[in-house]
Design brief:
There is one protein chain. α3 packs antiparallel against α14 and α9 packs antiparallel against α10. The protein folds into 2 domains: 177 residues, D-Maltodextrin-Binding Protein, domain 2, CATH 3.40.190.10; 205 residues, D-Maltodextrin-Binding Protein, domain 2 (3-Layer(aba) Sandwich). With 468 residues, the protein is of the alpha/beta class. It starts with a helix and ends with a helix.
Length: 468
């Protein structure tokens, strides 16, 4: 028995010795590393090639984009962009591109079937984008800004021009996050027939007093001073007006419904200007100011029946095939200053793209939004006169756009931003319904300025109490 125990012990010692020999020697943490000989060649270790191209093969995206005036100028614009994205990523893209986009996509959205990406700006008569904001139904796309543009080695945030992702139009909840992507931008202002003014020897007004003087001259010749496509176009007009009357501080307070703001002298000046302008507006304007008939009001300018209308640079493509008076040529000016030597403002209006939070392919949708800022997409959009807010994109411009986009180089100041978002309240309409739609009634004479102001004050109290 003793011999067996001794033999078993020897076997155990031998086994431990073998195991010890197989254990890697641990480095001494106090040891000094051996110097590297700089003359020794460095041998690259073989690595597997890395393909960083975004691969969305097998993913199907639905993109819903408004067929606006830009699409009139270049009907295949959105299709080409979708095809370019598909070629870059392998994704399949189903495109919905309609003038009445809200009517097309709303029923399916109500049934729970959402597009993955929607290009539809605020300020439309249907107010779908505003409703999505109020109901918190937009996906947070802040991370898109730090994504590389598909097919390019540059981040989205480094391509977008400064200021466009820092406004309430893209960050509606004031929480430091981006929910809407800035799209086609346009200096907005008063568009007119420069040929008519040259023919009559009339100067472009630089103050509102000069505007009223021109209104009297035009009236004597049977021409109205003003028209507007729809009341929705008063958003850019009114924002620029608030800037010119009270500057950025007044604009910020007014668009956040600060208590008492509509009782200030600045607010009264804004209301007075709009109310007086209504008396110089072509009487057919209200009846034609729907999202279906608005081009009839734009035609009033082309026919020399009215001089000025608020609009954006898309107007050229939108009315490209419309008849016009002899000698017609586009002109554009900022809103006049309140007094001589004051600042005239041109609102920088831009459209928005967004992702419904209930979309089936949110991550792939973010890649598509990122692609909208690619050089390929910008070049395609530019064919329709749709200019992305991308650094250096102005180099692609020609024709009338050179004049339009140089407005800020000619003395006008830029206005940007809009009314702050508020939670849905029963019986409380959108900003357009409260502030701008009543202009139709001001023009027709069925609403007084005092009643308009009173309704704005009452609505603003509710908006302020329900700010997001």
């Amino acid at each position: 028995m003793k011999k067996k125990i001794l033999a078993l012990g020897l076997v155990l010692v031998m086994l431990l010795s073998v195991l010890a020999g197989c254990t890697p020697k641990q480095p001494d943490p106090t040891a000094t590393p051996a110097p590297v000989d700089p003359t020794e060649p460095v041998v690259d270790q073989p690595t597997e090639p890395v393909d960083d191209k975004l691969d969305l093969t097998g993913t199907t995206l639905t993109v819903a984009a408004l067929a606006s005036g830009y699409s009139e100028a270049y009907p295949d614009m959105w299709k080409e962009v979708c095809d370019a994205f598909a070629a870059e990523t392998g994704a399949t893209v189903n495109l919905i591109n309609e003038k009445n986009l809200e009517d097309v996509i709303t029923p399916s959205m109500q049934a729970g079937d959402y597009p993955d990406v929607v290009h539809l700006a605020t300020g439309r008569e249907a107010g779908l984008t505003e409703q999505m904001i109020k109901d918190n139904l937009l996906a947070d796309i802040t991370d898109v800004l730090s994504m590389n543009v598909p097919g390019e080695d540059v981040k989205v945030g480094d391509k977008i021009a400064g200021g466009f992702t820092e406004t309430s139009l893209t960050n509606p909840y004031n929480d430091g996050k981006t929910y809407l992507a800035p799209m086609f931008y346009s200096p907005c202002g008063l568009f007119y027939n420069a040929g008519l003014l040259e023919e009559k020897g009339w100067s472009v007004p630089t103050t509102w007093d000069e505007m009223w003087e021109l209104g009297e001259k035009a009236k004597a010749e049977g021409i109205y001073l003003f028209t507007y496509p729809t009341t929705g176009y008063f958003d850019a007009f009114f924002y620029a007006l608030m800037y010119s009357v009270g500057g950025p501080d007044f604009f910020e307070k007014a668009t956040h419904y600060e208590e008492g703001i509509w009782d200030t002298p600045e607010a009264q000046t804004c209301f007075d200007i709009v109310a007086k302008l209504a008396t110089y507006t072509h009487p057919l304007t209200p009846a034609q100011s729907s999202d279906q008939d608005f081009t009839k009001n734009q035609q009033l300018v082309l026919d020399n029946a009215a001089i000025f209308m608020p609009n954006g640079t898309w107007i050229v493509g939108e009315m490209a095939e419309a008849p016009r008076a002899d000698g017609f040529k586009w002109g554009m000016t900022a809103l006049p200053a309140v007094e001589a030597g004051g600042d005239g403002y041109s609102y920088t209006w831009f459209e928005q793209a967004w992702i419904p939070s209930q979309a089936a392919n949110v991550d792939a949708a973010k890649a598509f939004v990122a692609f909208l800022y690619s050089d390929k997409a910008c070049e395609i959009f530019a064919k329709g006169g749709a200019i992305q807010p991308v650094l250096g994109v102005a180099d692609m411009l020609e024709g009338d756009n050179v004049m339009f986009y140089s407005i800020y180089d000619n003395g006008a100041k830029a206005a940007m931003g809009n009314f702050a978002a508020y939670n849905s309240v029963a019986g409380l309409g959108t900003n357009r319904e409260v502030f701008f739609d009543p202009v139709n009634s001001l023009v027709s004479g069925s609403l007084t300025e005092a009643d308009w102001i009173s309704s704005i004050k009452a609505a603003s109290d509710q908006m302020r109490a329900n700010l997001k």
